[in-house]
Amino acid sequence: MTRVMAPPVTRPRAISGGWVIGMAISIAVLAIGIPGALIFTVDDVGRSQGWIITTVIGVWSGIRISVRWVRGVPRLFDFFFWVFTYIFIGIAATASMRAADIPWTTASINPDLDVPTALITLGGVIAYEVGAFIRWASARKRPVSELPEVGISVGRALLLYLMGIAAVGYYVSKMGLSAIFSSRTNSAIMQSYIWGDSSTLAIIYAMAIYPLLVAVGAFAQHWRSLQPGESGRFGYPVLIAAGFVGLMLVANPLTSARYTAGTVAFALVMFLGAAATANRARLTMLGTIFGFLFVFPILNVFRNAGTQLQDRQSFFSEYIGNADYDAFFQIANAYSYVVDGLVVPGRQFLGSLLFWVPRSVWPDKPEDTGIMLADYRGYPFTNLSAPVWSELLVNGGVIAVVVGFIIIGFALRVLDDRMVPAYSQAGWWGVAGAILPVYSLILWRGSLLQATGALVVMMVGLIWIRKKSPPSSALTTLSR
Q1: CA angle 414, 225, 233 (to 5 degrees)
Q2: What is the pLDDT of residue 300?
Q3: Which residue of 68, 319, 334, 459 sits 20 to 30 Å from the alpha carbon of 174, by its own alpha carbon?
Q4: In sequence order, which residues have a C-beta less than 8 Å from that of residue 266 and are 6 or more positions away?
Q5: Are 416 and 75 in contact (CB under 8 A)?
């Protein structure tokens, strides 16, 4: 069965007065107002001048985010890159450097590292733009809406769904509902007690989330394609609702990582057509920006015992000295690692690619990059982030950052070209496009080794439900 969905959202129809006003307001708030308020309300106590460079990154990121959401074209891989850069580099790093209060998880970093770290970060951003421009220049004459016709095998999706439900049942039976709905700290302690090895836990946790999430996405896409009165019209919502309950047991916002809970929540909304039209895409991206600036910090109050809402004295105090925003200073640690001549080219990447190899077989298997940098610095707490800049630095130095970001910028532009038309259709690309862009935020924050297992589980699920449509199909179809 083929059903024509809404026209693909690829480009804004025209530059209207409302478009110009929206862009002006967004830039005034994100690129001028928030960075300006930060500078005026957070005193510079003289740690370094690195904050000037990160402010420039923040201003440019604010402009790029504004362009992305106001245009209403859901290039979500690009969107989440700029969201990460804006918040973790543009705001958080600037506030911490001006206040000279860096996250406790990355203590005692030499202020002399701030400026070179900021320049390396800026170099990555510029390289990303270069890569995206190369792709745009090479493909500008091709229509963005050209998309391989890929359908969904609902039969395979059902098998994946059943496997996901079984994985949720196993996880819940081992953890118990009291631990699942207690606090993030208690849940982490219980997970560590039950499974011990972090790699084993990561795989089990991913198996309890992503197969079910992919299957729910397949059902949602198929449901969207059904005509009124067609068989299954009322059955699929039941499967979707049951899947939602299962996902909330494992990835609820109380005890799971906020990035994981956010990935699941965002994907579920996308499955239902949150980016199917330009206006929906605008609202979805605007809501995401609001969520990261205001909801994301507040969620911590409900996740950790002892955290009080009044502990947040001002908007920018959330970012000062907060371990959740240690990305910039982990890049500084990675740069220090390079300066000390400790880089073994490609070693950390190899460890991420071979994450599934047990240490009993490979005793010298590389540690997670965040853990490696924590051990290098002698930190007692080792569960740290490792942004993509850090991963590239420890694998090949500054050159790897430049080359890597050019490749990433090019590749994400290609992926967005693929995904944009899919949001207004019903098919496999719509499922992939609902999950992968938001999950990229976890990859941006790192560490890569931590994120690789879940990514592989997710990709296996997506490949499993994939089914080629007949060449004669006009648009993506879904097969029973």
Answers
A1: 145
A2: 61
A3: 459
A4: 288, 434, 438
A5: yes
- What is the four-CA torsion angle of 117, 335, 93, 42, rounded to 10 degrees? -70
Helix (H) or strand (E) holding 448: helix 448-465
Q: How far apart are CA 423 and CA 444, in angstroms?
A: 23
Alpha-helical regions (H) of 359-421: 369-377, 388-419
N residues, the chain: 480
Nearest to 334, CA basis, from 405, 400, 397, 402: 397
Residue 468 pairs in a beta bridge with: 150
Distance of CA 74 to the CA centre of its chain: 15
**CA terminus-to-terminus distance, the chain:** 9
Whole-angstrom distance, CA of residue 160 vs CA of residue 152: 12
pLDDT at 260: 82
Give the C-alpha separation, 285 to 69, whole Å.
6
Which residue type is seen at 57? I
Query: What residue has token string 């095998």?
Result: 153
For 176-199, how does the pLDDT look when each residue is reduced to its tens digit (9 = 90+)? Answer: 887 777 777 777 777 777 776 666
202 close to 454: Cβ distance less than 8 angstroms: yes
* Cα-only R_g, the chain: 22
Q: Is the peptide bond before 479 cis (omega within 30 degrees of 0)?
A: no
- 90-130 confidence digits (pLDDT tens): 999 999 999 999 888 888 899 999 999 999 999 999 999 99
